[in-house]
Protein 1
Amino acid sequence: MSTELTMETLTSLLKRRGFVYPASEIYGGINGFYDYGPLGVELRQNIKNVWWKEMVHQRDDVVGLDSTIIQSAKVWKASGHLDNFTDPLVDCKESKMRYRADQLFFANVQVDGNSIGYVSAQECADTEAELVKKALELKRKAGVQGELDSLEIKEFTEATEDEVALVPSPATGKPGSLTPPRAFNMMFQTYVGALANDSSKTYLRPETAQGIFTNFKNVVDSTRVKLPFGIAQIGKAFRNEITPRNFIFRSREFEQMEIEYFIPGDDDIWPKMHREWIDNCLEWLHGIGIPKDRLGEDVHPKEKLSHYSRATTDITFDFPFGRQELWGIAARGNFDLTQHQEHSGKTLEYFDEARKERYIPHVIEPSVGVDRTLLAVLCSAYSEDEIGGEKRTLMRFHPKIAPITAAVFPLVKNKPELVELTKKLHRKLQRRWNVFYDQSGAIGRRYRRMDEVGTPFCITVDFDSLEDGTFTVRDRDTTEQKRMTEAEIIAHIDDRING
RNA sequence: GCGGGCAUAGUAUAGUGGUAAUACGUGAGCUUCCCAAGCUUGAAUCGUCGGUUCGAUCCCGUCUGCCCGCACCA
């Protein structure tokens, strides 16, 4: 009985039960950052561990890597991030349009040497023709006779203060609504060493992928991998988003789980590999408890692809705030390795023994955010039902990612022999899983506490346990109870986790 | 970044120019033989800074954060 979930309901539960808190909260918070509490960190670790286990350990063709957050600034120059992130932007205050200043052009319109105003246009197939068209229009409206002088076209990055005030917005045609160009650098900047100058300047990585590319040769030379093979990495990345929104969906500090899967460049290979990875990723998401009917595929249209990308498919999830990207699976060609080979001057070619051929491999790049996955898991797990007329809130986490795997309770707390036996059982089960002990409150209350944090198994020790060594195992989703011995409990939980 | 709304315990909310409350939750104790029972008792709140005022949680301004639109999201 899942109910329409709002983000308000979810975030208050996550705060109340210790999953997610706003970062720096006692100082008023900091926009775009979130901290994970005692239960959040467990869930997060479990998601990462399952991913690593299934994407790295259980495959023979993927190896792991952990590269640094801060790397040489040259890495970001080569990858293109530096140039793409430092472009100044211009806002039109009236139409709310935003332009890249280096793609916005303007010209002073003069008739027989006399200025009659300015025209502007966004970069297009024939920007000059567009500007001339607008200039003639301006001349006609102004009712000025005479010959239009040839236009001196300038980039908006070169606009003087006076010109900024006079150049019309391409959207509205009216002057005065454009802001001066402002730099929006999406990369967090920092300095390495004691001196803060241009040569010590570098950036926190905006994606983990580049650390994989820069270590490609190291991995090939040290591990006997053969194409096709992948390098996987889980790690933090940082983007100074203009507007972080939607809770942990788009934050400024986040964690990615990425694989660069290296393949030969042949045209008939990548589409097949691309499709295999999409299916593989969908299957993984389903395996951690995300229902297939909330997942979708968004194929990027050709004209929207980056020039180096051959195809990109996003796996989407239906969040309470809409259908959004969860996992991008890109066929990136060999752009990145080629860039790093050019900029570093080191060969990043791979020698294919089977083919007796040397080439720069292409890649399939499945890239997913830990925090987005966690949010999708939370949204999927949340549900409400009724037990004996009472409303119940529960998180239906898959047992393999539940923050607490099992809880143990003495039926009553004022009988020392029950408490003692329960604690003994607790210590034994803790060796395998995160197991929680609780003796406070009526047994029903303790069950509900565990329901709300998604603990799949509750084990109650009663007076029969003292006699026959069996315990009541209560199932979170069905509330059904079964008596089992300790050995049976271990087998049962193992089975539910792996089954 | 723009426009609008909001900010009171852990959560959800009430309320007041003379420093505050209800519910749930939570600590301690009693009770309790399986689904938020009961009793006793405790802790805990007006986002920040400034102004007006004898006095501000309340009025005004600033900042910060949150929500909704727009724009942005290599």
Protein 2
Amino acid sequence: MKLATWNVNSIRQRTPHVRAWLERARPDVLLLQEIKCETAAFPAEAFRDLGYTAEAVGQKAYNGVAVLARRPFAVTHRALPGLPEDDAQARYIEIETDGITVIGLYLPNGNSGGEAGFAYKLAWMDLLAERAAALLQDDRPLAIAGDFNVCPAPLDAAPGALSPTDALVRPETRARFRRLLWLGLTDAVRALHPRAPMYSFWDYQAGAWPRDLGLRIDHVLLSPDLAERLTAATPDRAERGREQPSDHVPVVASWEAG
DNA sequence: ATGCCGGGTCCTACCCGA
């Protein structure tokens, strides 16, 4: 099983990049974030000839997530369970495929909207932990992947790339990410690469890419049964060097069949 | 230096990202 997650920063701008990457990498499942289009406008047909079917959860202009998969899958949730019914932010999709539950998410950044915006991020993370705990009660393997907007530890942010008060590194944010790990989930990239930065994002500004001032904020978390079979987990840095790239690169995790 | 770039949209100056 090869699972990938990629914040594409507008699927309409990045459809050729995604197509080319799918042809090269051939993941079984690709989770997309920041599609920045409404659900009905997602260009599902652009990936069909490559063997992928698509489901999107979108909204106008902001956020938006999607799943591309080569095998049949069923969408089980189109919003994070526990959020208010009137929360219209498109940040969550949950599917079942091949006996595995897969969550694709775009976690709130938490830097806009002042303390209320940060509180929304923390509340979202609390609900995610509740959902993860509930799913881990089942025997079904679980993968949670996406743009978490969290640098879990100092190694995950280039020195000077962020203020210590940034929502991506604040202690309250990191504590909630650790809670996910303490539930029994494994951070796939960090598990296989304990010492290297393994950035997944470089800002468009200030020469962040040529200076390698990156962040590791896109993650794949695996339940114990999947983590035991993990064979590879890495960001695909080459994507950041292409023409008109997203500011994020795909993060890919592979494990052996159970 | 919260602007530098690059998406988006009430079409064009402004919001948002991280």
